[in-house]
Amino acid sequence: MDQPDAIEMPIIRMIAMPADTNPEGDIFGGWLMAHMDLAAGSIAARRARGRIATVAVDGMSFLKPVAVGDEVSFYGHIVSEGRTSLKIHIDAWRRLRDQDERMKVTEAKFTFVAIDENGRPRPLPRAP
Questions:
Q1: 1 vs 108: CA distance, rounded Å
Q2: Which of 9, 44, 50, 98 is the most exposed place for a label (fewest CB within 10 A)?
Q3: Which are the contacts of 109, defined by CB distance < 8 A and separation ≥ 6?
Q4: In a structure prediction context, what are the per-residue pLDDT tens digits for the chain, which is 128 residues long?
Q5: Which residues pair with 108 in a beta bridge?
Q6: What are residue 12's DSSP bridge partners?
Q7: Which pTM value belongs to this model?
């Protein structure tokens, strides 16, 4: 994804806080990954119309560090669908609190499976 358009809304927007840093003061990659999983899960649950489970994360690459105080926005879209699963691409962009410029910091593809009340795979409902 190129830089998001001004009209495109992020799925999640967070402010990176001191508790989320490593000893060097950069935000943990796990913090980014957790928020990316939340964003992807939001898309997956809406499409699956119910419970879903993350089963894989592919191709995560960290491009730039995130610092305390940065606003991080998570954008995503469905890449593909199977009978019970779907793959979602998520991009994370940082913006310094006092600036307008945004920089892509990471991206990954998340695979989810729609599950029933017993935790077993179930077919995705028909697309609207």
A1: 11
A2: 98
A3: 57, 58, 59, 79, 87, 88, 89, 90
A4: 566 665 578 999 999 999 999 988 889 999 999 999 999 999 999 999 999 999 999 989 899 999 999 999 999 999 999 999 999 999 999 999 889 999 999 999 999 999 999 999 999 999 87
A5: 90
A6: 74
A7: 0.91
